[in-house]
Structure formats: structure tokens, C-alpha cells
Amino acid sequence: MRPTTAAVVLCGLAAANALAVRKCxxxxxxxxxxxxCVARPPGSAPFEAPPVFRAxxxxxxxAPPITILYGRPQCPPDFDLxxxxxxxxxxxxxxxxxxxxxxxxxxxxxxxxxxxxxxxVDGLVDPVICMESFDQEYEEEMETAMNVxxxxxxxxxxxxxxxxxxxxxxxxxxxxxxxxxxxHVSNLFIAYLILVVVQLGTDVLPMxxxxxxxxxx
Length: 217
Ligand SMILES: *[C@@H]1O[C@H](CO)[C@@H](O)[C@H](O)[C@H]1NC(C)=O
Ligand SMILES: *[C@@H]1O[C@H](CO)[C@@H](O)[C@H](O)[C@H]1NC(C)=O
Ligand SMILES: *[C@@H]1O[C@H](CO)[C@@H](O)[C@H](O)[C@H]1NC(C)=O
Fold this sequence. Notes:
The protein is built from three helices and twelve strands, in the order E-E-E-E-E-E-E-E-E-E-E-E-H-H-H. With about 220 residues, it is of the alpha+beta class. The structure holds 2-acetamido-2-deoxy-beta-D-glucopyranose (NAG) (3 copies). One 2-acetamido-2-deoxy-beta-D-glucopyranose (NAG) binds near residues 32, 33 and 36.
């Protein structure tokens, strides 16, 4: 065990200048399948507090003793708990800082010590933090917009096509101005067509079609 991870467990009584770190589940318990805590399988590695950092990537020279508190934090109203992943391909690196807060380098965010807890999953320590919950109303508005916009665009398509042909077929209109209008409406036609296909077909189209049409999810 490295000295920086030495954990001093006091029964809820924080020692002077000790760092209090919250473990999400009770001692001997780990995360279960459905957000609950379950007993850790026998023989699995016990929870160890992560090292303390002075700056990103710079360990604290003298690590304070760590007091482990048990249980999830009380999030403010309208906040929910979210699991972050301390990997470079997730939200990492995430550092436990000397004042007990977490530094999430990727999101340029400090998480106050009262707003998170830690839990180890397969030997890796991941934080669970209080974050403002997504706005339900906004989500619903977006959903409606995504259903209404394509219909409007679908209606526009034949008119764009008609404009294109009128400018292409009437000789008096085949001048420089007419050419720019034709380019403009044909561009709009293609753009709307792709948008309509992507917005209405995201659930049924193969991923490769969505990606090549510029919708990466
Ligand atoms: C979660 O899982 C545990 C054990 O598998 C079970 O006892 C409990 O009822 C589950 N809770 C919910 C909310 O599904
Ligand atoms: C964390 O939040 C509490 C309550 O809002 C506040 O008293 C405390 O100073 C904060 N700690 C840090 C390190 O910002
Ligand atoms: C996150 O991962 C980094 C790099 O592996 C490690 O130095 C750091 O202590 C970890 N943070 C936590 C909170 O476990």
C-alpha cells in the first residue's frame, strides 16, 4: 500500500486537517446492478481512497490522513447522482485534491466535497457526483421540434424542385441571377432532403447512413 492511499477510518469524527472522503456504499458493500449497494463478493479488493493531488498530475507532498465517510451525498433539489468514469476515454483524469474536492480536468470542473462520493469498481475508483438533472420540458420541446421540422421541410421540397425547373426551363430566366437562384434552391433541396431523412429515420437507418449524412449519433 502506498503511503498516499493510507486511509484512517475514524467513526464519523474527522481528525484535525484530515480529508473526509465519502464512499457511496457502506463498508464491505459495492455497487449492485440497479443502483443499489450489494455485499462485495468475498476475496474482492477492498475500497481504497485514491491518492491526493496538489495540482493536476502532481501528488500532494504530504498527504493528509483520509477519513472515510459512508453513504451517498445529499444532493440539492433538482440534482441527480451521475456516475463518472475515470478513464481517458471517459471523463478522466479526475483528481482528488487537497481540499477534498474533485477536479474533473476534461470538464474544467471542481466538485465540492459535499457533492460526490467514490466507489471502486473492479479495483478502479470512480466518482458519483451530484449534477443538475436534465430539464424535462426542454427535452420534450426538442422532441416536438424534431417531429415538426421535418414535416415543414418535406412540404418545401416539391416547391424547391418546381422553382429549380421553372428557372431552368424558362429562357428569359436563364441569366446570371437565375443561375444563382438555381444553385441556391438545389442546395436547399439536397440539404432539406438529407435533414428529413436523418431526422425521421435515425431509429431505422443503418449507422453508416446517419454518419455519412452528418448525424453522428
Ligand atoms: C435491485 O437489486 C436487488 C438485488 O438484486 C433487489 O433486491 C432489489 O429489489 C432491486 N431493486 C430495484 C429497485 O429493482
Ligand atoms: C463546499 O460547499 C459547502 C456548502 O455549500 C461550503 O460550506 C464549503 O465551503 C464548500 N467547500 C469548498 C472546498 O468549496
Ligand atoms: C483517476 O485516474 C488517475 C490516473 O489513473 C489517478 O491518478 C487518479 O488518482 C484517479 N482519480 C480517482 C479519484 O481515483
